[in-house]
Amino acid sequence: MTVSPSISAIKDTSAQDRLLKPKRTASVKAWVFALVGMISVTLLVLLFDKVTQLFNSDLSISKRQIQIAKVEKGNLQRDVAVQGRVVAANSPTLFAPSNGTISLRVKAGEKVNQGDLLAVIDSPELKNQYEQQKNQLEELELEYERQKIQIKTALLDNQQRIEMAKVDLELAQKNIQRAELNIEMKVISQVDYETQHAELEKIKLQHKHAIQNAKLQKENYEFELKARQFQMERQKYVVADLERQVNELELTSPITGVIGSLMVDEKDSVSQNSELLTLVDLTAYEIEVSIPETYADDLGVGLATEVTLEGKSYVGELAAISPEVTNGQVSGRVKFVDSVPQGLRQNQRISSRILIESRNDVLKVRRGSFVETGGGSIAFVLEGDVAVKRPIQLGARSINEVEVISGLDVGEEIIVSSIEQFNQSQQIYLSN
Asked: What residues does the Multidrug resistance protein MdtA-like barrel-sandwich hybrid domain cover (predicted)?
C-alpha cells in the first residue's frame, strides 16, 4: 500500500517567486477609446450640422459650378464696352452737278491730290443755256447804255426849253416895262397894255411848267434807268450761277487721298445729283461704334474713350452720336485724341471702352451673370457652406464691376455667376 507524502514534505518555493508590475496596455486602450469617442462625437455634431444645413436648403450645388466674389469698397469707373470698325473721318462722295455724259480721269484705288481732275461731264443743254443767258446779259448791258444816252438827250432838250422860256420871260418883262412908260405917256391904249401884261403872265407859266416838267422827267428817267440796272444785275447773277455750273462739270478732288469706289462707268449718261464716286482721306481715321440703346441717355459728345488695338491702348473721345436707334443700337463716332495707330485699315474691327462716369469710395463687387439673371435685385450671400438669398439694390455698372447701394456689406461673399437655376430658392447648399 502506497502512502502519500505529507504536506510538510513539499518544498517551499516562495524564495523563487518575484513581484510582477501590472501592464499599461489597459490604460492606453482606455485613452484611445476615449479619444475615438470624442472625435466620433465631434464628427457626428459636424455631420449633423451639415445634414441640417442640407435638409434646410432647397438645392445642393457644387462650388466648382459657381463663381464667388467678395464685396469691396473703392473707386468705380462706369463704362460700356463697344465694338466698332475703322472708317475714314473724311470720306466725301461726289455727285453729278448736271445731266450729261461722264468721262472718267481716274480709277478705283488710285491716289489723288487735292485739286486733281477726276471726271468731266459733257452737258450741251447746260452750256447752251449759259450762252443764251450770257447773250441776254450783253443785250441788257447795251440797252442800259443806250437808255443812258437817251436820258441825257432828253434832259438836254428839257434844259433848252427852260432856257428858251427864260429868254421869252425876260423879253416879256422888258416889254411890260416899256408898256408901263407908254401908258403913262398915253402912247398906247389900255387894251394894248393889258394884252402885253397877259402875255407876260402866260410866259411866266410856260417857264414855270418847263422847270416842273424837266424835274418830273428827270425823276422818271432815273427810275427807268434804275429798273433797267436791277434787271441787268439780276441777269448777271443768272449768268454767274450758270458759269459756276459749267465750271463744276469738271470735277476735282476736294482732298488728298484715294478713290474709294466708282458708281459709274466711262461714257455713262448721268442724271443731276446722282452719285459718281467716293474718296477716302487716308490721313484721318475714326471708329464707328454701335452702342446699346440702354446707355444712350448717359452718352455725350466728348466722353473719354479707351481704344484697344493689338494689345495697346489709345486715347480717344466720343465725337458724334446718332439721334436714331436702329435694332436697339445707337451709332456713334470715336476719334483719336493723341496719336493715331499705324497700319489702320478701312472696316478693321476694333474694341473700345467708353468711360461714362467715375465714382469714388463706393461699395462694389465684381460684375457677373447674377446681375442679369437676378434682375439686379437679389444675391446669394455665402454663410459657411450655404448661400442665402438676400434682396439687394445695385447702382452704376461698368464692364467689370457693379455698385452696391444696399443689401450687402464690405467683406461679404456672394455668387456672381448665373443664378438662373436657383433664383427661386431661398437657400442653397454648397458642396465641395
From this structure: 102-278
